[in-house]
Amino acid sequence: MNKEGKPALHVAVSAGHADVIPVLVQAGADVNRKGPEHGNTALHDAVSTTTVNHDVIDALLGSVNQLNNSTLSLSLHFNGHFPGEPGLAGVS
């Protein structure tokens, strides 16, 4: 956690450090934890930025067995993984 109370996983997502995400998750970082700023999970933060970092999203989705249903469904929607939904996939 940083001095603003932001969990390490959220910090890694914000900084675009996709390589750190699996290490944090294996060490016990809670992928469903909501950050203090907007009440978003790390995955929500990753998909709701103006510059979507697909490596970060892929690293978080690699932890899919630890994501709760609401976190996963909202994130899949944003990434265009639902049929008929354009989402944000491909946005640069």
In terms of topology, how is this protein built?
Elements: H1 8-15, H2 21-26, H3 42-47, H4 54-61, H5 69-78
Question: What would you say this structure looks like, in words?
Answer:
The protein has 92 residues and is an all-alpha fold. The protein has one domain: Serine Threonine Protein Phosphatase 5, Tetratricopeptide repeat (Alpha Horseshoe). The chain contains five helices and no strands. It has helices spanning 8-15, 21-26, 42-47, 54-61, 69-78. The radius of gyration is 12 Å and the shape is globular. Mean pLDDT is 76; it is low at 81-92.
Q: What are the main properties of this structure?
A:
Serine Threonine Protein Phosphatase 5, Tetratricopeptide repeat, mainly alpha, 92 residues, 0% strand, disordered C terminus, globular
- Approximately what portion of the residues adopt beta-strand conformation? under 5%
CATH class: Mainly Alpha
Helix content: 40-55%
Which residues form runs of ≥5 with pLDDT under 50?
A: 81-92
Q: What's the end-to-end separation, in Å?
A: 29 Å
* Number of E-state strands: 0
Largest sheet: none
Concise structural overview:
By secondary structure, this protein is mainly alpha-helical. It is built from 5 helices and no strands. The relative contact order is 0.16.
